Amino acid sequence: MLNKSDKIIITCPLIFTNDKKLGLLESGGILIGNGQILDIGPFDNMKLSHPEAAIENLGTGLITPGLVNLHHHLYSSFARGWAAPGEPPRNFAQILERIWWRLDKALGRDDIYYSAIVGLCESVQSGVTAVVDHHASQFTVKDSLELIAEAFKSVGLRGSICFELSDREGTRILDIALKESVNALSKWPVGIKGERVSAMVGLHASLTLSDNSLRKIAEATKLYNAGHHFHLAEDEVDQKESLAQYGIRATERFAKFGLLNERSLAVHGVNLEKPEIELLRDYKVNLAI
Q1: Which of the listed CATH numbers 2.160.10.10, 2.120.10.30, 2.30.40.10, 3.40.50.300 matches domain 8-63?
Q2: What mean pLDDT do residues 184-202 have?
């Protein structure tokens, strides 16, 4: 059995490197040691350069870099196949109220941790090595992100974590969740060497956040220069509510409070108009559809 410090060359018929110079390697090799990829190149060259390395020939298949899941709800891992009691939802708002919000209010500490473990293990099995998670557990807020960070560490993945800020359970819960978010930004800032996770500011959507709440979130987190991870125009109701209550579209609301930057991640965006897409582009916001 190999030790972690031992070197091994993994080879297979095709290796997609995502590198402009190396491109797609036929009969390539990947040198691994101390838990890191040390070198990539033609297998024959690798074997000559590192005669001490063990060799594992996969025989068939394609090796690619690890995939990145830009938007996950790890807390929903155990909800697959769940038929919520009561009348089935008939529209987007009812899906939120009768399924997802109902679920996240029922989560306890063990549910949060093991949902993350299961979701991250399934990610590894699917070739995903980095996960951007958007967490919600409105009645179990304190230290919930610590539990998720521990799950990332246990499974060995990299990723980003945040707590979903929303007005839906009132000001008291929002304030507790905002404190959890600020603590996470302080504990897991972007770019710390050796840290597997970093924190973002999570927001549910324009639909469930008032102007006062967006202002409060912006003021509490501005010192951290953090990115904001939020659902944007996932359904027409997000835009309709924004126009009816504030006279502007959802993207414009986030821009108004300084929540758009190059580290921010808008998700879905299936009901955006061209000016909103241009606004996201101007602020260099990442959009995951």
Answers
A1: 2.30.40.10
A2: 91
Q: Please tell me which residue, 145 or 6, carries the higher pLDDT value.
A: 145
Q: What fold, for 67-288?
A: TIM Barrel (3.20.20)
Report whether pLDDT(2) > 80: no
Domain chopping of the chain, boundaries? 8-63, 67-288
SS (H, E, C) 104-152: HHHCCHHHHHHHHHHHHHHHHHCCEEEEEECECCCCCCCCHHHHHHHHH
* Pairing status of strand 54-57 against strand 8-16: parallel
pLDDT at 194: 77
pTM here? 0.91
CA dist 13 and 73 (Å) reads 35
Taking residue 39's Cβ as centre, other Cβ atoms within 10 Å add up to: 16
- The per-residue pLDDT for range 72-100, each reduced to its tens digit, is 999 999 998 888 888 999 999 999 999 99
